[in-house]
Design goal:
With 229 residues, this protein is an alpha/beta fold. The protein has eight helices and twelve strands.
């Protein structure tokens, strides 16, 4: 039974979402504030949480900061809830570490489907030839580990899948739409912000100078390619 952390300050919305998720056989831990959510994660229950759904507009510690703090300590999938389709909020949330977003009001069916999809994408990727050394960036596809100059790099599932996809074909240019379809799914086509944010976060972890990437280059007007410079 997947364990979901639900962080939502509106009691009626929180109770409704919790009820629906429990009906779909999720174990739910609910929090009304960012402080409560972080305290729960720091306690005995924290190690059992598989995914977090975080409202951005929380009292006290807001959802952006909650996502940032969760991502600093965990690679679990993160879905943010936002009451507005504002590009700035969405991009900021993705940059804070969220893997996906849902705009409120959202139906229970849609939320459950997005949670199910995020958990599915977090499952181990298919095994391939291990131990690829890309000029100091070593990708072990069998163990699903990444090291840079000998130092382990912890990557959330979406960023790891993105790196595996790009590095499987060095030099090939992938459009954002191709990456959305292969790593996310067809429901996300057209939302290139997910790809750009994931690439940006990935670069901060594998590049020595993220602003001058060595491993993942941008091909203007099209997408990205992998190939150590």
């Amino acid at each position: 039974m997947p364990h979901v952390l639900l962080v939502e300050d509106d009691a009626s919305v929180r109770d409704g979402m919790e009820l629906v998720l429990r009906r779909h056989n999720y174990d739910v831990a609910a929090a009304a504030t960012g402080e409560q959510a972080l305290a729960l994660l720091a306690g005995p229950q924290g190690g059992t949480v598989d995914l977090a759904v975080v409202d951005l507009m929380l009292p006290g510690i807001n959802g952006f900061e909650v996502c940032h703090r969760i991502r600093a300590r965990s690679t679990m999938p993160l879905i943010m809830l936002t009451a507005r389709g504002d590009d700035h909020d969405i991009v900021t949330g993705l940059e804070a570490g969220a893997d996906d977003y849902v705009i409120k009001p959202v139906t229970a069916r849609v939320l459950e489907a997005r949670i199910r999809a995020a958990l599915r994408r977090a499952e181990p990727a298919a095994l391939c030839t291990p131990g690829e050394d890309h000029a100091g960036l070593v990708i072990d596809r069998g163990a699903l580990t990444v090291t840079r100059t000998g130092t382990p790099v912890a990557l959330p599932p979406m960023e790891l899948r993105l790196l595996l996809e790009l590095s499987a074909s060095p030099g090939r240019v992938f459009s954002r739409e191709q990456l959305l379809e292969s790593i996310w799914d067809s429901d996300y086509l057209g939302d290139s912000r997910l790809v750009d944010a994931a690439v940006s976060r990935l670069r901060t972890k594998i590049e020595e100078i993220p602003a001058r990437p060595r491993y993942i280059q941008t091909v203007r007007g099209f997408g990205y390619r992998f190939g150590p410079l």
